[in-house]
UniProtKB/TrEMBL annotation, chains A, B:
Superkingdom of the source species: Bacteria
Protein name: LacI family DNA-binding transcriptional regulator
Keyword hit for Transcription regulation: yes
PANTHER family to which the protein is assigned, alphabetical: HTH-TYPE TRANSCRIPTIONAL REGULATOR GALS, LACI-RELATED TRANSCRIPTIONAL REPRESSOR
InterPro entries reported in the protein's UniProt record: Cro/C1-type_HTH, HTH_LacI, LacI/GalR-like_sensor, Lambda_DNA-bd_dom_sf, Peripla_BP_I
Ranges for domain HTH cro/C1-type: 1-49
Keywords for the protein's UniProt record, in alphabetical order: DNA-binding, Transcription, Transcription regulation
Lineage of origin: Bacteria, Bacillati, Bacillota, Bacilli, Bacillales
Key word DNA-binding present: yes
């Protein structure tokens, strides 16, 4: 259905249809009505693609993330969606399933689709040592397409980013445990080469140092970010002759796994061991005991990423780094020693 | 960066660049190399939008769903993503946040973006009585844009759909409880006007009838699909003088809420009460006891939706209804009476 078909069916000229569509010159109400009836009948639509070509904007954004089934990301995505809708953007969701190669493919694809900007979460921007070609690829991309990184960074020229201060969040968590009388504290989960793990452990050690305490090396148990990681590492801890009285977990998933494993072995949480998570995903309140955790303010995080990106697209000045303060949420999985 | 810029920088004619890009005529290796270097240098890309206009396809699909933070949908989305990638589609994810008006907005927007097809989950297609204008809108849309409905339907001409047989899944769950000796069974959660709730209750009553049993009306407790619905309704059940020995839940979320509430009130699951969920989302194995549930085979469901949609787009014949058989997964939340 083109403008020519509409003109033909309404028995008017193409110019008249154009006048009505673009409101460029007055047309008699009767003629206008005739044209609108045909348009409604066929649900004639202006061609969004053609308009995009002309306007050099597509009002589409690409969202690259590593795993939509990890509940942290849908929560952030909700904030992204809310803010994107308010600014009339539609979203391509690109789930890389944790593979760097797919990140590359999606970057290429999103450029080809001429998105107005992208938000990048997880993957290579969370590596403490990223391969040079992965870094350069994203740098080059960001020079051409407005880009915002969430909770990560990349070597080279700083790309605009919004980060939750995970170190500050971890400090709050450790101070909470110290205030409850715990000094035998273990750390569970997280890949050693990911910045999110490193930042948390660094903050953990910092607070301990400030209190003249030392973190026991054998109680730092790296693993991945899954429920099973929490189970595996809790099992290890419970087999040690000297057991911690409290456990910091890299995220809520591992905390819930740790709580499940402890419960299965007859330990009562928080009476026998205090456990603390990170993220505040819905899972944290689904189990008994509800999990004490650090909120990353996921909706705000997602909204902020888009509001920064929108400003970049409109060529407004934005500071390179926006920091969101996390918040300790005390629930039932931590108790006085 | 246009083809003219490439030609200029490489010191060759536009026609030569075109020959290389489109491989329409032989070009000397040396010239080709020169052009490719310039192209790589500037990451020259063919204009995907222009190509889409010419080809009348965009290789984009729209996915409309009600709530990405409900873990059922990310699980289905993963299957959708896997199959879409294999067929070279990129996905617009449209989260309606449960509002019918947003469904309308997204349908309009996706048509304007000229997606090659859409997958529709939840919302109006799950209403047992849908308003006529909502039904007609989707019917009209589906006549123009290839459309696949997941776990739902709409009055009027049948639209292609893929459904898990939720009735059959519920029958398996009820038979499992009967085999364990339970006949005092309650049903928790689900909005009364949603087909997913109705189908399950109908199947529950059917199996009971077959065994000469009657479902107690006061034990059918409608609510929404949330964790809190499970908590609220379990609390009601535990306040009754005659309590059920087993509870069927509309989904895993309500089952986990019910388990949490029972635990909080000192009931041991499954020793005191057996509880069974539906969906098999990751949450089902995150808690203690792990939840007996009915798997909707979410990845297969998502994959199947896209493979049907892809056939529709290619104008292949596909049957209107594809049914996926669900599977009872026996875990720890159900036990012999």
């Amino acid at each position: 259905m083109t403008i020519y078909d509409v003109a033909h069916e309404a028995g008017v000229s193409v110019a008249t249809v154009s006048r009505v569509l673009n409101n460029t010159a007055p047309v008699s109400p009767k003629t206008k009505q005739k044209i609108m009836t045909v348009i409604e009948k066929y649900q004639f639509q202006r061609n969004a693609l053609a308009r995009s070509l002309k306007k050099k904007e597509t009002r589409t954004l690409g969202i690259i993330l590593p795993d939509i089934t990890n509940p942290f990301f849908p929560e952030v995505f909700s904030g992204i969606e809310l803010e994107a809708r308010e600014n009339d953007y539609t979203l391509f969701l690109c789930d890389t399933m944790g593979e760097y190669e797919r990140e590359t493919q999606y970057l290429y694809m999103l450029r080809e689709r001429q998105v107005d900007g992208i938000v990048f979460l997880g993957g290579r921007i969370n590596l403490s040592k990223v391969e040079q070609n992965l870094a350069e690829e994203l740098q080059t991309f960001a020079q051409r397409v407005p880009t915002v990184l969430v909770n990560g960074s990349i070597p080279g020229n700083p790309i605009h980013r919004v980060c939750v201060d995970e170190g500050a969040g971890t400090e709050q968590a450790v101070r909470h445990l110290l205030a409850l009388g715990h000094t035998d504290i273990a750390f569970i989960g997280g890949l050693e080469y990911m910045t999110t793990t490193m930042q948390k452990i660094r903050a953990f050690k910092k607070v301990f140092r400030e209190h003249g305490l030392t973190v026991r090396k054998e109680w730092i148990l790296y693993d991945d970010f899954s429920l099973n990681a929490g189970k595996r590492q809790m099992k290890k801890l419970l087999h040690m002759s000297h057991k911690p009285t409290a456990v910091l977990c890299v995220n809520d998933y591992t905390a819930v796994g740790a709580i499940q494993e402890a419960g299965r072995r007859g330990y009562s949480i928080p009476n026998d061991i205090s456990i603390i998570g990170f993220d505040d995903v819905p899972l944290a309140t689904a189990i008994l005991p509800e999990v004490t955790t650090v909120s990353q303010k996921t909706e705000l995080l997602g909204r902020t990423a888009i509001s920064i990106l929108h400003k970049l697209i409109q060529k407004e000045k934005v500071k390179k780094l926006t920091v969101i303060e996390p918040e300790l949420i005390i629930r039932e999985s931590t108790a006085q020693l």
